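Duplicate of #3305? Posting structure anyway:
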């Protein structure tokens, strides 16, 4: 009986110890697992920057430089001619603009000073030396002063003064038109000069292709495109010349209208005898 009581006591003690262990195990497990759940995640490593791709400049093998280096004397001569034509046209444009500006200034000064003077001679001295209006006034005064007692006396004074003033106006108009023929020539011939260079370049390119025996697109497109540069240069030379010519012609018309008006008024004043 004592043995049975001892077994029961040991079994009971074991059950009590097991129940106590089960009661305390969940909190401990929760406490152990809580830090693992709340632990912050490790930061991801930063991505390495992509290496920069270096851009290598490739020289155009069919550009203007290549055309000059590989061209023959005909191609180079054509290019030089177009450069000279372009420089000549720009020179004419700038010089004529300067001359027209000077004449417009003289026209304004003549309206402000010449017609406010007490006499034609006093107004003549007020005009700028070398100007077109001073030249016209000088010719008109000479015609009115040297009419009597000379061979031209058989011509009436009105006609003689009118002829002298008209000749002076014609000289001024001729001086204004100097150089415009250069612009007209460049504008009309530069495209054909460039076209000649293109035809010659294409001919040489086709000869080289025929000798090499290779007619692929890279062998044909490069030399032909290089030859077409001549046409582009010809157009670049001709377009400013044509536009400059038309612009200068319009400005000349405005200047000549003012010049003829001045000459007509001067003619009437000289006929009236107020010198």
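Output from current build:
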């Amino acid at each position: 009986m004592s043995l049975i009581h001892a077994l029961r006591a040991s079994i009971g003690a074991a059950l009590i110890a097991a129940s106590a262990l089960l009661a305390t195990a969940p909190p401990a497990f929760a406490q152990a697992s809580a830090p693992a759940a709340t632990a912050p995640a490790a930061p991801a490593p930063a991505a390495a920057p992509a290496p920069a791709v270096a851009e290598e400049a490739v020289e155009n093998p069919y550009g203007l430089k290549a055309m000059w280096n590989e061209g023959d004397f005909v191609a180079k001569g054509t290019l030089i001619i177009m450069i000279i034509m372009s420089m000549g046209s720009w020179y004419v444009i700038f010089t004529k603009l300067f001359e027209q500006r000077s004449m417009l200034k003289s026209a304004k000064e003549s309206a402000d000073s010449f017609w406010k003077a007490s006499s034609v001679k006093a107004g003549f001295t007020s005009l700028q030396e070398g100007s077109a209006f001073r030249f016209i006034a000088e010719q008109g005064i000479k015609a009115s002063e040297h009419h009597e007692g000379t061979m031209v006396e058989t011509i009436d004074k009105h006609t003689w003064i009118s002829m002298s003033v008209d000749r002076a106006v014609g000289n001024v108009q001729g001086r204004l038109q100097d150089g415009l023929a250069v612009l007209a020539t460049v504008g009309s011939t530069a495209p054909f000069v460039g076209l000649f260079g293109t035809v010659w370049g294409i001919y040489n390119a086709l000869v080289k292709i025929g000798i090499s025996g290779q007619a692929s697109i890279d062998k044909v497109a490069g030399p032909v495109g290089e030859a077409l540069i001549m046409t582009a240069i010809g157009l670049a030379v001709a377009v400013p010349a044509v536009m400059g010519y038309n612009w200068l012609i319009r400005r000349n018309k405005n200047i000549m209208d003012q010049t003829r008006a001045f000459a007509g008024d001067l003619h009437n004043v000289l006929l009236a005898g107020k010198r």
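Confirmed duplicate; merging threads. The CA atoms of residues 93 and 252 lie 13 Å apart. The chain has eight helices and no strands.
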